[in-house]
Amino acid sequence: MARSGRLLSVNVARATALTIRDRDVMTAIAKRPVDGARAVALLGIEGDEQADLTVHGGPSKAVYAYPSEHYPFWQTVRAQAGVASWDEALGPGALGENLTLAGVVESDVFIGDVLRFPDCALAVSGPRFPCFKFNAVMGFAHAAKLMVQSGWCGWYFSVREAGTIAAGESFTIDPGPREVGIVELFRARTGRA
Predict the structure, then answer these.
(1) Torsion of CA 3, 71, 11, 14, to 10 degrees
(2) Contact 112, 169 (CB under 8 A)
(3) ∠147-101-145 over CA atoms, to 5°?
(4) Which CATH number fits domain 3-190: 1.10.150.20, 2.40.33.20, 1.10.8.60, 3.20.20.70?
(5) Domain ranges of the chain
């Protein structure tokens, strides 16, 4: 039986300058939820941009997803770091994701799996690797290190079937070859194997 889940939020951002360590860098990591259906094409979701195409974007990294199941962890560590109050919730898109998902986490996903939404299909293409911009938006210097240690990285998609996508939709996972998992690939590439 195919595994299923729900799309809680579709999030987009335009690239803007963010001051990090006294220099301005372009980034579109500050994703915000949008209402209604959005077009999904070869290079991503309508209204979204990527600032550094060497690490994000392109056909193999067109859309980035993150499990909502990890949000309580990030809320807690931000409070422990003193950059947020204990009751301050992170909004959808806060980890830079285009899709905030429920019902599936990294250990459930393999390269080549296809998530089928009502009007589009997205193929899992690889894990996300955090950088200094992630530390900046989380508000503390060790956020990327915590992502590496936990393995809670989310994953990228290529667009298998273009169409539209909207918050509230359900999806199913059509298994691919199931040879390389997101967790295993992430740990191998970050030296945490």
Answers:
(1) -140
(2) no
(3) 5
(4) 2.40.33.20
(5) 3-190
Cα–Cα distance between 170 and 7 in angstroms, integer? 6
Read off the pLDDT of residues 121-175 as tens digits, 9 standing for 90 and up: 999 999 999 989 999 999 999 999 999 999 999 999 999 999 999 999 999 999 9
Count other C-beta atoms under 10 Å from residue 152's C-beta.
Answer: 21
127: nearest Cα among 168, 155, 105: 155
- pTM for this predicted structure: 0.96
